[in-house]
Amino acid sequence: MRSGKVWLVGAGPGDAALITVKGLHAIRQAEALVYDRLVSAELLAEDPDGFEMINVGKTPNNHLVPQPQINQILIDCAQRGLNVVRLKGGDPYVFGRGGEEAEALALAGIPFEVVPGISSAIGGLAYAGIPVTHRDYASGFHVVTGHLRQGNEPQDWATLAKLEGTLIVLMGMTQLSTICQQLIAGGKAPTTPAAVVMYASHQEQKIASGTLLTLADQTSAQGLSAPALIVIGDVVNLRDTLAFTPQALSLNVIPALIPDIIDGNSNLVHSQ
Fold it and tell me: How far is CA 30 from the centre of its chain?
């Protein structure tokens, strides 16, 4: 039996149309699709009928399928000769645990390929009218997680408070008030612009903005919760000026590429 191959595909920040051409093509050719909770239903509908779909989605503090088991699912599917797409929101290597999955595949001798996606830290904020850099406001940005591995030391917010540029926090909503307080305690001005973007790039996108001092209260008053991005820095002030209404694009209008065949080495090659 030929060995299968695994494609680690980034689905982008939310809007299904923001997936890459190569990512969409991989989904349409998949024989097994292993996907996360926040992946768009429109993308899941692109998987060919009759092939395996495995939901390994996680909710905050509730991992029904632990990461080692997800790794093993990918290995098992590939060892059965299936071509597998591991579909996850954003980019696989930006707090998506794609590195851990790729490492497990490499150790098991399973061929794999990474198809990068648009990170919510950049693309999601762009949809909210917030550029992560701007020559007049920020010459750099930092992306950190608010949710560390159990047993690890907490983020050093005092050090992060001293960094110039835009600060973006992923998976930090349960700690929003603490993050704001610790950044202020670390020396960042209480009046620093800040925002929370919920369901970034989705039709249901919601935004709360204010300052480090007011953001937690405003977010609570507007009923925003995870999944959401936290962004801190002067670029937040551009939100009203740079807000836009995205044009809807259905994946149905994107034609399939030339059908591919799979050679004996599990490589996709164009048919002639």
Answer: 20
| Identity at 257, one-letter amino acid code | L
Catalytic residue, from 22, 58, 206, 260: name it: 58
Write the CATH number of the domain with boundaries 129-242. 3.30.950.10
108 CB burial (10 A radius; 0-12, 13-18, 19+): middle
Compare 51 and 187 and report the one with higher pLDDT: 187
Q: Which of 89, 16, 81, 79 is nearest to 57 (CA)?
A: 89
Question: What token pair was written down for 172?
Answer: 């930090």
Q: What is the mean pLDDT of the chain?
A: 91
Partners of residue 250 on adjacent β-strands: none
Lowest model confidence (mean pLDDT) among 2-6, 96-100, 125-129, 146-150: 146-150
d(CA 4, CA 50): 17
Instruction: Report d(CA 209, CA 266) in Å as an integer.
Output: 48
* Per-domain boundaries in the chain: 6-119+248-270, 129-242
Instruction: Look up the CATH architecture of domain 6-119+248-270.
Output: 3-Layer(aba) Sandwich (3.40)
Q: Which of 124, 90, 67 is nearest to 10 (CA)?
A: 90
Q: Indicate if 136 belongs to the active site.
A: no
Mean pLDDT of 11-24: 96
Q: What percent of the chain has pLDDT over 90?
A: 82
Catalytic status, residue 58:
yes
The per-residue pLDDT for range 180-191, each reduced to its tens digit, is 999 999 999 999
> Catalytic: which of 15, 36, 47, 91?
36
